[in-house]
Design a protein that fits this description.
Oligomer: heterodimer
Mean pLDDT of chain B: 86
Structural class of chain B: mainly beta
Largest sheet of chain B: 22 strands, antiparallel, barrel
Strand content of chain A: 5-15%
Radius of gyration of chain A: 28 Å
Low-confidence stretches of chain B: 797-802, 1032-1041
Largest sheet of chain A: 3 strands, antiparallel
Structural class of chain A: mainly alpha
Distance between the termini of chain B: 32 Å
Mean pLDDT of chain A: 90
Number of helices of chain A: 22
Number of strands of chain A: 12
Number of strands of chain B: 53
Chain lengths: ~600, ~1050
């Protein structure tokens, strides 16, 4: 029995030993907040999280002028008057409501802000090097400014939060703060970012620096200044100038630093496009980009986006926009008599060299084979190639490696010129050091400041603008920054919303049933017909003019008019996006934007 | 000649059939034992020796042979028969002990080996389906490594840990049944109600399944060898159109219709160009089969294809072979005995190229040493390992079934004339053909239990202690190698990922138990106490490495992966529980039974202040048949018991760190400074006072044995309430910026019942026919009784939202959808019907005759989903329910003269299925027009066939919200009930006399068929689906389409069983 007793003793004591300690099993592979802010590395890790979720990717950038299907305004754009998609967007055809936004939209998303605020509440650990703390807090302020700038563009008035909220906070249910408070707070944040962000330019074009903060500041202040100037209903016109001065000041600081310049190798026929199709971003001009890499198998789908009939959106440029490209000598294309009845293959010749780097036209080739615009993919004939690489295999494999610019120096020059012209302070010297430089890099021979207003721009785009310089600045902005995510913002701040309801226009069709060779390679590409022929010519796309959805402006010839039976309307309430209905239900203090 | 028959307990047995025969079988007589167990043969013939065979229901057949007797000699035989399973005298395994079935008061069901014998199963899971009522086994696909969820009595929780199934214990230690050798299993017990599971406390909230393995034999050494060879085939073979011209023609119609008959397709899913001239030449090729299938387009220089390829024929092998060998050696003495068992199982070759191959090896050693009169030691060592090679596709990493649905049109072919792969093939079967992308996975599982049993006071107090160690290491190595293909002669393109990945997870689990059992009787009062403690701890560690740039496809080693994209990630978790438990049984005269159980449990998964919980339960039984007033029924009623139980359990089966704010870490998906760095993200927000979910069960049951135990019936009805399920709290405004904290917020109510009926009898003949049938039926329904959804927003009909919304009063599984009124008959019909502009019919949204007309349920003149809430559902209503109802199992068996025949039919009595967007085998080109063309979709509306099943032929209708077929609706709701012949076995055992000559104990040959026959009403319109698995392949891509997964197999097996 002694052995039995000893055995029992051990079994019992073993079982009854401290339970509490036995149950103390913390996480083995993740950390808790108390240890998350203990070193500079931790701060870097949080900042990496901002880069991960708070910047647009390639699709969001070149799809920013989307105008099709379910597409809606997003943080990074989302609508455009210069491009055509498959069908008019819900936003314009009347189907979109704040209830629908509750189920299909995802813009009212505040988790990135809470993440930044959480960081700003915790980063200031005295044990961490003070320069690092300052740098990282500068970057965090950059992202908070960027977040609120995008939200303010969408919604107008929005609640301002500088703290990570808790479920019990009454601030969750507060009304919206006025635009003026939000804008001032954004300005304070971006000023902080300009002061404290790292001063050295980032050669990889993927990190926030002081200089990037100045670029964002010029973008924000130009937006706010022009928005207040043209949206007179806000009664803030008198405050517009101070914002425009801030915009010009930020741009001037950046220009004066000499850290960036326009990328050029003296080859105007390829310099512009090199900014958009290379794996390594040109860091002399590009300040921030969505970067991709073959080595890391990180790819975008630019070619598929523009050259797939099923996968991509197939955005195509409208004829009106193509008309805004100058001639190579700096004269206006639309000054040519009967400019609007020139066939495609002729109208694209002798133009601003950026045109041949923006759309498919002769002599563009892929893998050495002529690649004409294909109506299998384009609606209008003006098929973008700005971001497409020249390897035909990419048209079906989403393996593009090109960096897609988010901020580049050319925009800063455009911001500078526009802010100064809006203020009435633009000098010839200013023109030459901004728009003049951009046109010279593009290869336009005469870059002199204009003196006569362009009637085409006034009639087609900006009926209320008479200032010839301002019109030219707007032209330049459209051409230089096409498909880079600026167009909808520009329309909003210039109060040119009705532009979005304009008819989608394609190329000029000289006659029905005529084979057209768009790139003059000897092989016909497209033919406009009323019904597909019984013995078609191989390689020709037969485009059916049904006179319901598509028409020609003169009946059997003329400009191709698209989506004729799809109504699109603009009303000024659409300058502001609706708050999702479910959010209004959760917090009735969030009064809906009028009209929705 | 006379004899007496009794049970091993000494009970005299009546009604036993005794057959006597001599050696040359010239003399045969049968007799029955009377109510004193006595049987008499007036005389025996000549030509002995004689053999006696004793058979009776509920007891094992016994044969006594070699009796020689002199003429006139009077012999007397005394025989003891051994009870089989399925009887009230049976001993049932319960938590921390065993109990006589007669004394059970909880809802407990047990089955023996009959469900596993003679069935070559990859794992016992496949044998358990339908065998026990309300033990619901959910298999996801037919893959040999497929895991299954064990569920007891329906939806257990919608809160934290709802994906956890029942607690499965193998020889008292939690384990994965897939690691088990089916031949080792002795019994499977299910503890269904709270009272039975209470002794497992927080681990048993969702029911407990106890699997016990066979114990060593205590007499002479016995060897059992079992071998089988099987041939498998798919249960369902999709019927698809493989004629290239027909396919392209329908593709063109579908695409053209989706673009309002304005735009012809430019390509067939971007790889194959399309044009009307091409369609014409395809027609010419179709009429002249001698024309080449591949030509070169003179204008583009690219290949043109005119194939008629059956891609599934290229994908699947004609049949799948399967082999099994198992051996069991057992024996010893009263003091020391042992059992060694081993098994090899191989299944290979589902695919024609780069076929998958599965090997599993099992080894078990059980030893027993009786050290002295009061102490014995047991060891139980289990070793199991598998390796599985599985082909992958390098192009997308998606499963072959997804790529095959989008990339393999019949018009394309596998290879070009120069032997290179086509682009279509490269994205799918061609990758298999080259065989360079595959996964090699494997698992090593080791378990050891050391147990002591000390009889402290003989027949009164026994103390048991055991300690177990389990280690499971699972590894998955994946290699993706780019695939070359050619679109024009001499031009080779290479596409796809080049990557090697290594995925390792190791789980270490320790458990210790110490418990004692004390018996005491005072006259007719019997008392039994079980008291003990339990400790468990678990540690999981993960490692994943991915690197690109393999320089060879021959060797899998990171030294040969030269790329710069290296991703290393870790992970893991740990938890522990500690508990003390008790069980007190009281019985009075074996008539009134009472049991009290309880457990005080602590878990590391809760905050310190909430770590412990106490979960008591009680149950009682009344054996009416023992009452004096029931004496008159003795002749036909053997036993009748009423039972009731009530108890509550805590749910500790949740993720380990729900109560801790965890700073989220991860790898950036975007590049920063040339790399994809790691990042940290704000922690989740945790509510105060998070505590246990509770489930409280009330159970009423009865057990009846009738007609000399020929008929045994068990019935149970139960009501289970889950309270405080961990679900998201009150919705917060979006400006909160984080997920709504989850708390103890939701309640659920489940009602259900289960019945099992057993009939066993024999037809008395010279050689009696024994037969039996077991029928089980079970059902349950669950309702949400509390949930935070004040707006009543519905899940389902929504474009982006994927979150699951419940609402108070919801019956789980309900499908909200529209009512299909029919097809539009004419333009006039469209104009005069409710405005359908919410529904999307085409690119320009122009409905035409033949498109679906929905019913305007709320008579507002508009078809829409209102606010998509229960208060304003628009024209939606509840059109069906996905929950499986009336699950049944029928198990008939017949035996005669060493021949036996048994079958097992399993099924679901009622269930609905609304085909999802990606159900390609149902929608065909109504989904993506370049996907399959199922023969079943050819029955569609045309002006000549206005009553076709499917609407006007249009592509993309099922793909995206709110297209006309993407909306759940009555017309396309499928009745997914089914009945399936899971198993049918015919066997023959050699007769005893032959065996004796060969010095063998038993030799048996058998033929088994599994999944041989299936009936389902859904096969009328969805013939391409197996109703048992309507999910997707979770191992490859959980978001994949329904039906796009490893097919279920039907199996034909020939086997032999040898015991000596």
């Amino acid at each position: 029995m002694r052995l039995k007793n000893i055995l029992l003793f051990f079994l019992l004591t073993g079982a009854l030993s401290s339970c509490k300690k036995f149950l103390d099993k913390g996480p083995t592979s993740s950390i808790t907040p108390d240890v998350a802010f203990s070193s500079s590395t931790d701060l870097q890790l949080f900042v990496n999280g901002f880069y991960n979720t708070m910047l647009p990717n390639a699709d969001a950038i070149f799809g920013s002028d989307n105008s099709t299907g379910l597409a809606l305004p997003t943080l990074y754009g989302g609508l455009g008057d210069n491009t055509t998609g498959a069908a008019p967007t819900y936003y314009l055809n009347g189907q979109f409501t704040s209830a629908l936004e509750s189920s299909v939209g995802n813009q009212w998303n505040w988790s990135n802000l809470r993440n930044v605020n959480y960081f700003l509440q915790n980063y200031n650990n005295p044990a961490i090097d003070s320069t690092d703390r300052a740098n990282y807090s500068g970057i965090a302020h950059f992202f908070r400014a960027y977040f609120y700038y995008n939200m303010m563009k969408l919604y107008g008035d929005i609640p301002w939060y500088s703290q990570a909220l808790q479920p019990s906070d009454t601030a969750l249910y507060k009304p919206r703060d006025p635009r003026t408070l939000v804008a001032d707070s954004i300005l304070a944040d971006i000023n902080y970012a300009c002061q404290y962000s790292p001063a050295a330019p980032d050669p990889s074009c993927t990190q926030v620096t002081k200089w990037l903060a100045y670029a964002l500041k010029s973008r924000i202040c130009l937006f706010e200044g022009t928005f207040r100037k043209y949206h007179t209903e806000l009664n803030l016109v008198s405050t517009a100038a101070q914002w425009l001065q801030q915009a010009a000041g930020a741009a001037d600081t950046l220009i004066a630093s000499g850290k960036y310049h326009l990328h050029t190798t003296g080859s105007p026929n390829s310099d512009y496009r090199a900014l958009f199709i290379n794996e390594t971003p040109s860091n002399d001009e590009i300040m921030l980009a969505a970067v991709y890499s073959d080595a890391l198998s990180k790819w975008n789908d630019a070619n598929v986006y523009f050259t797939s009939s099923t996968a991509g959106v197939r955005l195509s440029f409208n004829h009106n926009f193509i008309n805004t490209y100058l001639n190579a000598d700096g004269s206006r294309f639309t000054d040519i008599p009967s400019y609007d009845t020139i066939e495609f293959q002729y109208e694209v010749q002798h133009r601003d060299p950026r045109l041949s780097q923006t759309i498919r036209m002769a002599p563009y080739t892929q893998d050495g084979t002529p690649a004409p615009p294909s109506f299998a993919y384009t609606y209008t004939g003006y098929q973008p190639l700005k971001f497409c690489q020249d390897n035909a295999a990419l048209n079906s494999n989403s393996e593009n490696n090109n960096a897609v610019s988010i901020f580049r120096y050319a925009e800063v020059l455009l911001n500078d010129a526009e802010a100064k012209e809006e203020l009435g302070t633009l000098t010839t010297t200013n023109w030459n050091s901004t728009i003049g430089l951009i046109r010279a890099r593009a290869g336009i021979t005469n870059t002199a400041m204009p003196t006569v207003a362009d009637p085409f721009l006034i009639n087609t785009y900006y009926p209320d603008i008479t200032d010839p310089v301002l019109l030219e600045i707007r032209r330049e902005r459209g051409v230089e920054l096409s498909l880079e995510g600026f167009r909808y913002d520009d329309i909003r701040r210039w109060k040119e919303g009705p532009d979005l309801a304009r008819t989608f226009t394609g190329l000029y069709v000289p006659a029905m049933n005529q084979l057209l060779d768009l790139n003059q390679d000897g092989k016909p590409d497209v033919c406009f017909v009323t019904a597909a022929p019984s013995n078609p010519v191989a390689g020709v796309f037969y485009f059916t003019i049904d006179n319901v959805t598509s028409k020609l402006s003169n009946g059997t010839s003329g400009t191709l008019l698209l989506q004729q039976n799809s109504p699109r309307t603009w009303s000024d309430y659409k300058y502001y996006y609706p708050i999702p209905l479910t959010e209004i239900q959760l917090n009735p203090n969030l009064v809906q934007n009028p009209g929705w | 000649m006379r004899g007496i028959v009794q049970s091993e307990q000494g009970e005299l047995l009546s009604g036993v059939t005794v057959m006597v025969e001599n050696q040359d079988k010239s003399f045969t007589r049968t007799a029955q034992s009377d109510d004193k167990g006595i049987f008499v043969f007036p005389s025996l013939g000549k030509n002995g020796p004689f053999s006696f065979t004793f058979t009776v229901v509920g007891y094992e057949k016994k044969v006594l042979s070699g009796y020689v007797y002199a003429n006139g000699e009077i012999i007397t035989l005394s025989v003891k028969l051994h009870q089989t399973d399925k009887s009230l005298g049976d001993v049932v395994v319960v938590g921390y002990g065993t109990e006589k079935r007669a004394n059970l008061t909880g809802a407990v069901d047990q089955i023996g080996t009959e469900y596993f014998d003679n069935r070559p199963l990859p794992s016992i899971t496949r044998g358990l389906e339908g065998a026990i009522p309300n033990l619901n086994i959910i298999v996801t696909d037919g893959k040999p490594t497929a895991t299954a969820t064990y569920n007891v009595r329906g939806i257990t929780s919608i809160g934290a840990g709802s994906t956890q199934g029942a607690l499965v214990l193998i020889d008292n230690v939690p384990g994965d049944p897939t690691t088990l050798n089916p031949a080792d299993v002795a019994s499977v017990t299910v503890l269904k109600d709270a009272a039975s599971a209470a002794i497992y406390g927080s681990r048993g909230a969702f029911g407990v399944v106890l699997i016990t393995t066979k114990n060593p034999a205590k007499d002479k050494i016995t060897v059992t060898y079992d071998a089988s060879y099987s041939v498998n085939d798919r249960t369902v073979k999709p019927k698809l159109v493989t004629n290239g011209y027909e396919f392209v023609n329908y593709f063109d119609s579908a695409y053209y219709a989706s673009r309002d008959y304005l735009l012809q397709p430019p390509t067939i899913n971007s790889t194959l160009p399309f044009s009307l001239p091409y369609l014409d030449s395809l027609k010419i090729h179709n009429e002249n089969p001698k024309l080449p299938q591949v030509t070169v387009n003179s204008q583009t220089g690219n290949y043109n294809y005119y194939g008629n390829t059956d891609w599934f024929k290229l994908l699947y092998a004609d049949y799948v072979p399967q082999t099994q060998h198992s051996i069991n050696v057992s024996g010893g003495s009263e003091k020391i005995n042992f059992l060694v068992s081993g098994r090899y199982f191989n299944q290979g070759g589902l695919f024609r190229y780069n076929a998958d191959n599965f090997n599993r090896y099992n080894l078990r050693f059980k030893g027993f040493i009786k050290v002295n009169s009061w102490l014995s030691i047991n060891t139980n060592t289990d070793f199991s390992t598998y390796d599985y090679k599985y082909p992958l596709t390098a192009n997308s990493g998606s499963s072959i079934w997804e790529t095959i649905s989008s990339s393999t049109q019949p018009v394309a072919v596998l290879k070009n004339p120069d032997g290179t792969l086509t682009q279509n093939a490269a994205a799918s079967v061609g990758d298999f053909y080259l065989g360079k992308s595959y996964s090699k996975s494997g698992q090593v599982f080791i378990r050891n239990t050391l147990a002591l049993t000390a009889t402290v006071i003989p027949n009164k107090l026994v103390i048991n202690g055991d300690f177990s160690y389990l280690n499971t290491n699972t590894v998955d190595n994946r290699q993706y190698f780019p695939v070359p293909f050619s679109n024009s002669p001499g031009v080779i393109t290479v596409s796809g990922t080049n990557e090697l990945s290594y995925n390792d997870s190791t789980e270490t689990y320790l458990a210790a138990n110490l418990y004692g059992e004390y018996h005491q009787s005072f006259g007719r009062h019997h008392l039994k106490f079980t008291v003990g403690g339990n400790l468990e701890s678990d540690l999981l560690k993960k490692l994943m490495i991915t690197k690109n740039g393999l320089i060879t496809d021959q060797l899998q080693d990171f030294n040969l992966a030269t790329g710069s994209n290296t991703v290393v990630s870790g992970g893991g978790s740990q938890w522990s529980t500690i508990g003390v438990f008790y069980r007190a049984n009281y019985s009075y005269s074996d008539k009134y039974l009472l049991e009290l159980d309880g457990r005080y449990d602590g878990s590391s998964k809760f905050p310190t202040s909430q770590q412990f919980g106490f979960f008591p339960s009680a149950s009682a039984g009344w054996r009416i048949s023992r009452e004096d007033f029931m004496q008159g029924t003795k002749s036909w009623l053997d036993d009748w018991k009423l039972r009731a139980s009530y108890g509550s359990l805590g749910n500790g089966q949740i993720a380990p760190y729900l109560y801790l704010p965890i700073v989220v870490s991860g790898v950036n998906s975007v590049l920063v400074n040339g790399v994809q760095p790691n990042h940290l993200y704000q922690p989740n927000v945790i509510p105060n006072g998070l505590t246990w979910e509770k489930s409280t069960t009330l159970d009423y049951g009865t057990d009846i044995e009738l007609l000399r135990r020929r008929l045994v019936a068990n019935l149970d009805w139960y009501d289970r309430r889950n309270t405080g399920m961990i679900t998201p709290g009150e919705p917060l405004p979006g400006v909160f910026g984080a997920a709504v904290p989850s708390g103890n917020n939701a309640n659920l109510k489940t009602e259900g019942w289960e019945i099992s009926l057993n009939w066993n009898d024999q037809i008395k003949m010279r050689k009696p026919i024994t037969y039996g049938i077991r029928v089980t039926v079970s059902d349950n329904i669950s309702y949400i009784t509390k949930f935070n959804n004040p707006t009543g927003t519905l899940t389902g009909v929504s474009a982006v939202s994927t979150t699951t919304n419940y609402y108070k009063g919801e019956r789980l599984g309900d499908i909200w959808g529209f009512v299909t009124q029919g097809f539009y008959a004419s333009q006039q019909d469209i104009a005069s019907s409710a405005n359908p502009s919410f529904v999307n019919y085409s690119q320009e949204n122009i409905p035409l005759p033949g498109d679906i007309k929905f019913k305007d349920l709320n008579h507002d003149g508009v078809i829409n989903n209102g606010a998509n809430t229960i208060y304003n559902p628009g024209d939606q209503k509840i059109i069906g329910n996905t929950s499986p109802r009336y699950a049944f199992g029928i198990t008939p068996s017949v035996g005669w003269n060493n021949i036996f025949l048994s079958a097992f039919i399993q099924g679901i009595g009622h269930r609905e299925w609304s085909p999802t967007a990606e159900a390609d085998f149902f929608w065909g080109q109504y989904n993506r027009p370049y996907a399959f063309l199922p023969v079943s979709t050819l029955d569609h509306w045309t002006p000549a066939n206005p009553n076709g099943y499917f609407p006007r032929y249009r592509g993309y209708e099922a793909l995206s919200f709110p297209r006309e077929l993407n909306l759940p609706q009555t017309r396309y709701l499928q009745n997914a009930a089914y009945a399936r012949l899971k198993n049918m076995t015919v066997g023959y055992s050699l007769p005893a006399s032959t065996l004796q000559r060969m010095h063998l104990i038993n030799v048996r040959f058998y033929f088994t068929g599994q999944n041989l026959w299936t009936y389902s009403p859904m096969h009328k319109h969805a013939p391409n689906y197996d109703p048992e698995v309507l999910g997707s392949d979770p191992q490859v891509d959980p978001s994949g389409g329904a039906g796009n997964d490893y097919p279920m197999l039907k199996t034909y097996t020939l086997g032999m069983n040898l015991t000596f």
